[in-house]
UniProtKB/TrEMBL annotation:
Keywords assigned: Acyltransferase, Cell shape, Cell wall biogenesis/degradation, Cytoplasm, Magnesium, Metal-binding, Multifunctional enzyme, Nucleotidyltransferase, Peptidoglycan synthesis, Transferase
Name of the protein described by the UniProt record: Mannose-1-phosphate guanyltransferase C-terminal domain-containing protein
Domain Mannose-1-phosphate guanyltransferase C-terminal: start-end pairs: 218-287
GO MF entries: glucosamine-1-phosphate N-acetyltransferase activity; metal ion binding; UDP-N-acetylglucosamine diphosphorylase activity
Cofactor(s) listed: Mg(2+)
SUPFAM superfamilies to which the protein is assigned, alphabetical: Nucleotide-diphospho-sugar transferases, Trimeric LpxA-like enzymes
Function according to Swiss-Prot or TrEMBL: Catalyzes the last two sequential reactions in the de novo biosynthetic pathway for UDP-N-acetylglucosamine (UDP-GlcNAc). The C-terminal domain catalyzes the transfer of acetyl group from acetyl coenzyme A to glucosamine-1-phosphate (GlcN-1-P) to produce N-acetylglucosamine-1-phosphate (GlcNAc-1-P), which is converted into UDP-GlcNAc by the transfer of uridine 5-monophosphate (from uridine 5-triphosphate), a reaction catalyzed by the N-terminal domain.
GO biological process, one term: peptidoglycan biosynthetic process
PANTHER family linked to this entry: BIFUNCTIONAL PROTEIN GLMU (PTHR43584:SF3), NUCLEOTIDYL TRANSFERASE (PTHR43584)
Catalysed reaction, written as an equation: alpha-D-glucosamine 1-phosphate + acetyl-CoA = N-acetyl-alpha-D-glucosamine 1-phosphate + CoA + H(+); N-acetyl-alpha-D-glucosamine 1-phosphate + UTP + H(+) = UDP-N-acetyl-alpha-D-glucosamine + diphosphate
InterPro entries, per the entry: GlmU-like, GMPPB_C, Nucleotide-diphossugar_trans, Trimer_LpxA-like_sf
Length: 390
């Protein structure tokens, strides 16, 4: 069966790239799409717009800026064939649509659901009114515990699914897609065959789930992992160095990266040839050739060839308890979420002392440092501008 892939020409800020060329889980979106098409025996045909499609046979139509999981597309096709009518992929409103920043996606907003740009068409004689294939991905989730002055429920919910679909119309959607990629790895590990889990428990002399999680890693070639490091349910590339006391949980580490001592990386994607020498990286994506030396990166996406100095702060929460706002097409938009960090474009350098507000993006190539009166750069006659000497 053919699947017509509609080219989208909008560039994603601040990277100035098409969605299809941006990476999710260290692979370009169009590569992920093509792999899933191949698994389902679909023949992709690239078109500029819908008007080019005059196919009277059974086929699918999708935008090239949509990230989707294999299981979602498989189920969508199966259910559509049963209905024997043209269909659209829809998602019930809830935690999943909130956490994937649906307000920043150009999808059709209905009362209780959203329609994504993924369609099925049966043979011409069966076509009629478009019917909805509605997915409800709000059934399973984990949560980050929060004090109730930050969240009334005391919990910040994160959906757990292997059926994600996210249209990449904004950098926040790209961040969400990377997190969805990591969550899929976790959920696939959780579905590991019970017999294999039993064998792993015997191998580890323990039924402790954390000890078993350490056996669910995929480790590349020529890695140097210190014996005191803890790696759980993660994918580690080739030639990776991981230092003493470092914890890597449910994350993806690219080839040739160096992770120093005493660092924590959780639910994150680290690109190729990155150097991480300090801190805690949580729910974040860092692209290739980055040098990271600050204490904390949370809910953020960091471009390639970036330098983040010690003392840089990337904030991810407003202090007025309101949702984070972010810019799209020069308009401020409510993300619908109280947590969202920042997005640094490719080649950005942040010097020590820089503070970035939540939801902000920094354009490619900017090198930023605080004003001179915020750092000691010059001493004349025993005086330093902006400082007192005691």
């Amino acid at each position: 069966m053919k699947i017509y892939v509609i080219k989208k020409q909008e560039l994603i800020e601040p990277f100035q790239k098409l969605s299809k060329d941006l990476k999710i889980g260290n692979r370009k979106l169009n590569e992920i799409q093509n792999d899933n098409f191949l698994k389902l025996n679909l023949n992709p045909v690239i078109v500029d717009n819908l008007s080019e499609i005059r196919d009277e046979e059974e086929h699918l139509v999708i935008n090239d800026n949509i990230y989707f999981e294999y299981e979602l597309l498989k189920e969508f096709i199966q259910n559509s064939k049963k209905i024997k009518s043209n269909t659209v992929c829809s998602m019930k409103k809830g935690i999943f649509t909130e956490r994937t920043f649906i307000n920043l996606q150009n999808v059709e907003n209905k009362k209780d659901y959203f329609n994504y740009n993924l369609f099925y068409f049966p043979p011409k004689e069966l076509r009629g009114e478009t019917k909805k294939i509605i997915f409800d991905l709000n059934q399973k989730f984990e949560y980050l515990p929060l004090p109730k002055h930050l969240s009334k429920s005391g919990k910040y919910f994160i959906p757990l699914t292997t059926k994600s679909i996210i249209q990449i119309d904004h950098w926040s959607n790209l961040w969400a897609a990377n997190l969805a990629f990591v969550i899929t790895i976790i959920e696939q590990a959780n579905k590991t065959n019970k017999i294999l889990l039993l064998l792993l428990a015997i191998k580890n002399f323990s039924f402790n789930r954390w000890k078993i999680a350490g056996s669910l890693n995929k480790i590349g070639k020529k890695c140097d992992i210190h014996p005191t490091a803890i790696v759980e349910c993660s994918v580690i590339g080739d030639n990776v160095t991981i230092g003493a006391g470092t914890i890597i949980r449910e994350s993806v580490i690219g080839n040739d990266s160096f992770i120093g001592n005493g660092i924590t990386i959780e639910y994150s994607v680290i690109g190729n040839n990155c150097t991480i020498v300090d801190g805690h990286i949580l729910y974040s994506t860092i692209y290739s050739n980055a040098q990271i030396a600050n204490q904390m990166i949370s809910a953020s996406i960091i471009g390639k060839d970036v330098f983040i100095g010690a003392g840089v702060i990337l904030t991810d929460l407003r202090l007025d308890n309101k949702n984070v706002l972010t810019k799209k097409d020069n308009h401020l938009i409510d993300t619908g979420n109280i947590f969202l960090g920042s997005c640094l474009g490719n080649g950005v350098y942040l010097g020590s002392g820089c503070i970035v507000a939540p939801g902000r993006s920094i354009p490619n190539g900017l090198h930023i440092y605080p004003k001179k009166d915020k750092s000691i750069s010059k001493i004349e006659n025993n005086t330093i501008e902006g400082f007192e000497i005691i």
